[in-house]
Design brief:
Elements (H helix, E strand, L loop, with lengths): L2 H4 L3 E4 L6 E2 L1 H18 L12 H5 L6 H12 L7 H22 L5 E2 L3 H10 L3 E5 L4 H10 L8 E3 L12 H10 L6 E5 L2 H10 L3 E4 L16 E3 L9
Parallel strand pairs: 1-4, 1-6, 4-5, 6-7, 7-8
Antiparallel strand pairs: 2-3
Helix pairs in contact: 2-5, 4-5
Length: 237
């Protein structure tokens, strides 16, 4: 894929699993949430219950609601395993998780190798950059600032910025609208099938990194134009 051939104008880039490894942040916040729920009596479980970071990695990418629901499903022992009971507990847990994550956001996160150089390269080629994540924008913006990545992006949109999240194409199309670019000339860069499906449905080319989360599924089985081991390797020239 050639930037010249595509006449690319911009790039829409995912956050968690693409720019920053935030799995440990998520793990710490979810485990803190579980302990609060146990202390409050909302969750009947052993006080020693704990999610491993490897488990959490497979839950990331579909937004905070899905993350909380998935975490609770792993440890749910409230005496009724119905979907209704789990949904009710998730509704109680969501504000607890948000408070826990707000305190932890960025504390255990690390920028992936090649990200800074890759963003600098994309900018040097004249591409406008937007960050699009399913993480709430109120968490995404502070994380980008903490990691020193905020200056690269003209816009930052989260899972609560629009009516629907990725893999729906709406957020991608809204990003193109905000930048004033055509979908066919706007590259989507991510780490999961959510990014690829959203890009494909919106009519954007898509490149996926191989080091991210992808819900624990093999990334090379996803429909994409290219796969790279580093953001610096995105094929543009």
């Amino acid at each position: 894929m050639s930037a010249a051939a595509l006449r690319l104008q911009a790039a829409i880039i995912d956050l968690d699993g693409t720019l920053v490894d935030t799995a440990e942040d998520f793990s710490q916040a979810l485990n803190a949430m579980l302990q609060v729920l146990i202390r409050q009596g909302d969750l009947r479980a052993k006080s020693s219950v704990r999610l491993e970071t490897a488990q959490v990695r497979s839950m990331v990418g579909k937004g905070s609601e899905h993350l909380v629901h998935s975490a609770l499903k792993c440890v749910f022992s409230a005496g009724a395993s119905s979907t209704h009971a789990l949904d009710a507990l998730a509704a109680l847990a969501m504000p607890v998780y948000q408070d826990c994550y707000r305190d932890i956001n960025g504390r255990h996160a690390e920028i992936y190798a090649g990200v800074l150089e890759g963003l600098e390269r994309l900018q040097s080629l004249g591409l406008e950059l937007t960050c699009l994540t399913n993480k709430p924008v109120g968490f995404a913006e502070p994380l980008l600032a903490e990691m020193g990545l905020a200056p690269f992006f003209t816009h930052v949109f989260g899972g609560d910025s629009f009516e629907r999240k990725k893999p729906d194409p709406l957020p991608v199309l809204k990003c193109c609208e905000a930048m004033g670019t055509l979908p066919g000339r706007t590259l989507v860069i991510g780490d999961s099938s959510n990014d690829a499906k959203a890009a494909r449905s919106a009519g954007c080319p898509v490149v996926l990194v191989t080091y991210g989360y992808n819900h624990g599924e093999p990334i090379l089985e996803v429909d994409a134009d290219a796969f790279v081991e580093s953001l610096l390797d995105v094929p543009l020239v």
